[in-house]
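seq:
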Amino acid sequence: MSATSVTTRASDTGDRRYHNSTSAYVLPNDAVELERLDAQATAIVEMIGGATCLTPMEFLRGASKAVDVGCGTGVATVQIASLLPSVCVYGLDISPVSEDVRKTAPSNVKWAVGNVLDFAFSESHKNSSHGENGKFGGDNEPTDDFEPSQDSKSGSNVPSSDIFVSARLDYIYGRMLFLGISDWARYFSIASYSLKSGGIIEHQDLDWKFYRVGTSECISDNWPWHQAVVSAAEQSGLSTRAGSDAAKLMRGFGLEIVSVQTFEFSFVPSRKVPNSQAMGKYVQAKLLPQYPELLRKMLGCQSITGSDLQELTENCLRDISSEEGVHQKYTVTIARKP
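struct:
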């Protein structure tokens, strides 16, 4: 059974709490994880040059509606809403943001709970929209709209029609969705459907391979643990090239590429890449301690447990800290709907 069809409940794994969702997302949803996500957000901003989003502001003049897909703790949603005070910014995630964040968010923020892939198109759109493979949005078509909830101030429901409506959104932002989106063709078809003419999608995401500092020399292809993780990801419907494949998929759904930029998501700090030093420090302090749990969740679907899991985990932690500047590629793709 793939991760896309499993609902993981908080009580499944002892002390760690997980999202109660049909999403493929495998990481926990507890205080430790939320702290990690906020630290990661700060490191990403420094890595890409000091801004949450790289879309030129002139592209968003006159915008009225935006959505932060997979908003997590809501940190980027709040930052985007502060940057665009006249825009209604929706923060959408598979679990609610905290009450504290909702109370302190700008008044132009609305929160919603749901899986973007569960959005249901009208029959007329299904019959007229096709990706590169000739199929609309992948093989699995859901039957019902998800029901977003959690208005930023009152807790009242935000109707799904307020978010993914044909030609209604000006800006779609998504960051680090690679562990949660199990059908990228469907995701980008929803984006194309929902954007106005001239609307912008900004997609920031990782590929799974590891490289030497300052190069595109891949060093992970022969790591047994990495091969197992890639196999598990593919079994769950996840892409291992969620960053670098985005432009091709966007074009397939009629979006025009504005820019593609690639950054080094460092696992070990290196002076050779100054903007990624904070990322390397974050990974060593916050992300690596969570890797054993990530591997346990991902490799469990391949029945890798016990001593085999322990050996792969030990090799993983050794390999991804084996040299200065070892990194994954982080790609920011910005596209426009004609």
